[in-house]
Amino acid sequence: MSKNMLKFYAIVILALVFMYAFSASYTSDSVDNISYVIALAVDENEGEKNLQVTFEFMDTSTFSSEGSSESKSAIIDTINATSINSAINLLNAYIGKQVNLSHCKVVVFSDKIAQKGIGAEVSELMNNIQVRPSTNIIICKGNALEYIQNSTSQLEKILTKYYDIFPNSSEYTGYTSNIMIGEFYNYLTTKECGNLAILGGLNPTISPSNSSGNPSNNSADGSSSGGSSGGGSSGEGSGNNSSSSSSNSSSSNNSSEDSSKDSSEKEKPKEKPDNSTPISKMISGNAPILGERGTENIGLAVMKDGIYIGDLTAEDTLCHTLISGEVNSFLLTINNTEIYENYLDIELFENMIPKISVKIENDNPKINIDIKLIGRISGIKDGINYSDEPSNLDLYKISRATEETIKRCITDYLNKTSTEFKCDIDYFYNYAKRRFLTVQDWKKYDWSSKYTNSKFDVKVEAKIYYSLLHSD
Amino acid sequence: MNIKKIFKYEPQHKYDFNIQSTENATVQDLNSEKLDQKVNMSLQENLEFIQSKFNTLISSDVVIRKFSLICKNQKYKAFLFFIDGMTDSVNINHFVLKPLMQRNQQSKNKSAPPKTRQINLSSFANYIYNRLIPYNNLSQETEFDKIISDINSGNCVLFVDTLNIAFDIDAKGFKQRSIERPQIENVIKGPQEAFVENIRTNTSLLRRLVNNQNLIIENIEIGELSKTKCALCYMQNIANGDLITEAKFRLNNISIDSLISSGELEQLIQDGPSAGIPQILSTERPDKCVKAMYQGRAVILVNGNPYALIIPSVMTDFLASPEDSNLVPLFANFLKVIRLIALIITLLLPGMYIAVTNFHQELFPTELLFSILVARENVPFPIIFELLLMEVSFELIREGGLRTPSAIGSTLGIVGALILGDAAVSANVVSPILIIVVAITGLSSFVIPNFSFGFHLRVYRFIFTILGYICGFLGIGIGIYVYLATICSIKSFGVAYVSPISPNISGFSLKYFVPPFWKQEYRNDFLAPKKQVSQDKYSMKWKKNN
Amino acid sequence: MEKINNKEAISLTISCSLGITVFISSQIIASECLSSSLINTGFISLIAMGLTAIICILYKKFIGISFLDITEFVGGKFLKFIVGTAFLFYFIFTLAIVLCKAVNCLQIVYYPMTHPNYTVLLFVITAAIACNLKNNGFLRATFILVPIVIVAIFFIFAGNLKNFNYENIFPLMGNGVKATFIEGTTNLFTFGGIAYILFLPQNLKRPDKFMSVSLISTAISSILLTFVTATIILMFNKNVTSGQLFPLYIAVRYIEFGTFFQRLDSAFLLIMNIAICSFLGIYSNLCLGIIKEITNISDIKPLSYCFVLLLYASTILIDAKFELEFMQNIFFKILFFCVISLGLIILILANLKKEFQHE
Question: Is residue B24 one of the residues assigned to a domain?
Answer without folding.
Answer: no
